[in-house]
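so my prof wants the structure for this chain in the tokens format not the other one, which i didnt know existed until like an hour ago. anyway here's the sequence
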Amino acid sequence: MKQLVALIPLSLAGCISFGAKPPPALFTLTPAAPIAVGASQSSARSRSIVVQAPATPAALATQRVPVQASAISIAYLKDAAWSEPPARLFARLLGDTLTARAGMVVLQSVQSLSDPSATLGGELRNFGLDAGALQAVVTYDATLVRAGQTAVEKRRFEARVPVGAIDPANAGPALNQAANQIAGEVADWVRG
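here's what i got, hopefully its the right format
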């Protein structure tokens, strides 16, 4: 009887799954201008900013990589996904780029309560591939409230990077390049 009880969990192990099988490729974003290890920052010496995760349309509110198949249809890239939702990855990339290129101290919302910080938000409108044009496309509608101001500034940024094919090997590097281009342009805008 003990042997039978011991075999039941083993036989069930092949039937139970605690999540979907991960795809062969998990994408992330790496900053073109990384923050130096050990770099010290102080909002007493530098301007500060809060970077909010951008809003996204439903097609981007997933870890799957969208592919614009036609003007009215979206598919998802086979065998690839983001390591976490693209809005969070992009917000982190923006924060790192603002620190490295614009010398800004990036704060969490709670930290900014005692510091007169600027706020960067917006909407990530595109963050995927255009199959017809063979391009990685990132479109970000940024909103900025500068420190001590109440007016909202808004600006659209878009980057398009060619891809050789619509596959994970081409998509990841091209999307990273496009996202970094946007992050650099945003940093220049915010710094100005």
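also thought this was worth mentioning. The chain has three helices and eight strands.
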